[in-house]
Amino acid sequence: MSSSENSATDVINFFIDGQPVAAEPGWTILETARHHHIHIPTLCSHPAVTPWGSCRLCVVETRYGKRVQVIPSCLNPPVAELEVFTQSERVKNVRRWVLEMLLAECPASREIKKLAAAHGVTATRFAITDPEEECLRCGLCVAVCNEVVGVQALTFGSRGVKKVLETPYRVPNNACIGCGCCVSVCPTGALQKRLDTVRGDLSRRTGHGFAH
Amino acid sequence: MGKLKSVAELESLRAQVLAAPDRPVVRVCLGPGCLAQGADKVSRAFKAAIQERNILADVQPLIKETGCHGFCSQGTLVNLYPSDLFYVQVKPADVPEIVDQTLREGKVVERLLYADNGARYRSAAEVPFYKLQHKVILKNVGLIDPLDIEDALKAGAYRSLVKALTQKTTDQIIDTVTIAGLRGRGGGGFPTGFKWRKVVENARENPGPVFIVANGDEGDPGAFMDRAIMEGDPHAVLEGMAIGARAMGAEQGYLYVRAEYPFAVRTLNIAIEQARALGLLGQDILGTGFNFDVQINRGAGAFVCGEETALLASIEGRVGEPVTRPPYPVEQGLWDRPTVINNVETWANVPHIIDHGAQWYAGVGVPHSTGTKIFSLVGKVKNSGLVEVPMGITLGAIVEEIGGGVPGKERFKAVQTGGPSGGIIPYEFKELPPEDLKLDKVGLQPRGFMPMELKNLPVDFDSLAQAGSIMGSGGMIVMDDRDCVVDVARYFLRFLEEESCGKCLPCRLGLKGMQEFLNNFSQGKGAPADIDALASLGMALVDGSLCGLGRTAPNPVLTSIRYFRDEYLAHIVDHKCPAGVCRDLITYRIDADICNGCTLCAKNCPQACIAGANKEPHTIDQDACIRCGVCMDVCPVDAVVVA
Predict the structure, then answer these.
(1) Chain A environment of B442 (Cβ under 8 Å)
(2) Does the structure show a pLDDT above 50 at A4?
(3) What is the per-residue pLDDT for B500?
(4) For domain B587-642, which CATH number applies: 3.40.980.10, 3.40.640.10, 3.40.50.720, 3.30.70.20?
(5) Is B539 within 8 Å of A93 when comparing Cβ atoms?
(6) What's the gap in Å between the CA of B448 and the closest CA on chain A?
(7) ipTM of the prediction
(8) Which chain A residue is nearest to residue B500, measuring alpha carbons?
(9) CATH class for domain B149-363?
(10) Looking at the DSSP assignment, which residues form a beta bridge with residue B197?
(11) pLDDT for the residue numbered B431
């Protein structure tokens, strides 16, 4: 470890895949890895919003003393001397299964196909329910709409396997200012097709209430 | 009666209650099991019969509607005081006889006594089902009238709160709970005293209010331990919370009760009002300057809200979805303040620890798992119901001695402990070939290994974990040879899939995916390699999911693969379901030698696919048969066989 890194007292020194790394206070393991050009795949992580931890592709195996865990790197800050493994069997097992299931869940998404292929997953054993589906319900669009834009034009409806992305009361709504932030953060491009269901037909929008 | 302004006033009220003249009491169990069998009608019948006869005016017997007595398979249960008679399976029609014979004449109605193996038992204490039990938490459940605080005071309620307020410092309370070794009864088994200490430390660093929460969101199918406590002895929970509040300096408590428990909500609300009226909750409790109040929050039907972070989100009014820990609730819980969240049963333990002392409590059970635990014993056992046993008792003792063994001629096969997220562990020892630890081959940690017969497996937190299961909240489902593990695993996965919040991908997609595997198996499809694939998918859920729901959901699958791989192989390779459950792999056949041609099966068949003349052997048209099993159920001579 270089002496310049050690000079800052509150820098956290730990290891990723055996390589010594240093994290600024407040960084997560994922941020530290990216800073050091160590690749960890993610779908639901975006610097603009608070980490949410829904895709679980960024899981890493950590060892601290005797304690071995598999945790999402986007949510967890490192501690000094922590050993992080981004390619252990347990980690790869989670990633491969999530990607294989995503191939069935979002069969229309090119991005997911590419990401899965990069991890050696090219086919899925699971049943495809909607061949046109691209949305993986990662929640980035909901978070950016709420946290960054400051409105709640988008939300999740239902629960569990029935969870869907929709607008409040399932009607196009006034809250949407048509900024397109949701489209730009969407990891699969699913929002592009849906934007009009959120903001409605702009030509019929009056500015006072919503005529339709 | 107004607010009690001092401890002396409470004790004088208690003395006054205790001094009341002794009256005969009829305790009718109004627990969920008995209620389903018409316990409310039995209770009404008692009141009507006594009023109608009027002969008993001088004795004035008291009809008490109590919480669960535990012996649910024998409901409606009636306990008599002072004769200590125990009547089972009481119907409203039996009531006049009990009133005339027992209450008036003092005679025993023999036919209503519990009979087993030729013996009749006069009192509950003699019944084998109760004999091995060690009732601490359930002692007053079934004894007191849960809607009457005076009855609770008579049984000693709020004695421990007085002790905590007047004789112990806050540190001493926490130390007592720590030394007693109390561990969270919600399933996690986290040391309660440690948790409380953390809250105090965090509040010291970051001054402000702290909150305490009781988790009564009991959602496991077939489990009703917390319900029995909340409906049978609500003051024990309130008292436990008050003691905890005193120890941690909290002034507000929240009782989160699931929506499906309207009786528990009603009982707790009445209990809270009565406690407030007496000044046992509210401002300046018993003149000691201690303030504490409790509010009830009703769940909205989501199983996942039993997970602590989801529960706190629900109380705050947000969507009931778990968030990642850390920060733990003891650091940032309700409104980002340190919050302690314990199960209802854990809270109900606290007054007993303060009352009898840490050493007494630590002496019950085994080291590292002290005290007693309530289980709901259901499934293929003769005596099903609620049992409270000391930790460390063997599973065999619970299932065979308390449970009374399997009701039919089948053999015990397995026990599922800990609800839908628990493991299925085999009753008899299974030699596990080394290659059976297949999970190791993909580099995964082996989970659970049971080196002994289940009969001798001690029921405590650590032994159950070692066997690949969990204590959970205390569900215990017994299975016999007619239960198919593939089908059982599929059932629990379906339940958890329904209840998953859908936030993280491994849980939302994985529970669906695991079911696809199991659905294939139950239809005889798939390859042996798929069993290993399913196990590794299960491990992906264990490692990848956000909260406890997803992390424990694969347990039934993983343990059944481990211990019953042969049964999985029978489905896939031989296309047979050894237990005769999976519909696509079985056929119903009528044994012509046994069939007496009573036509009952043909009359009841929903497909009308059973043919045969009166008094002649019948046959089933296999092409039309939907394998519903109705013919088997109705056959009086057991001529219908499944293969």
Answers:
(1) 89, 93
(2) no
(3) 92
(4) 3.30.70.20
(5) yes
(6) 16
(7) 0.89
(8) A160
(9) alpha beta
(10) none
(11) 58
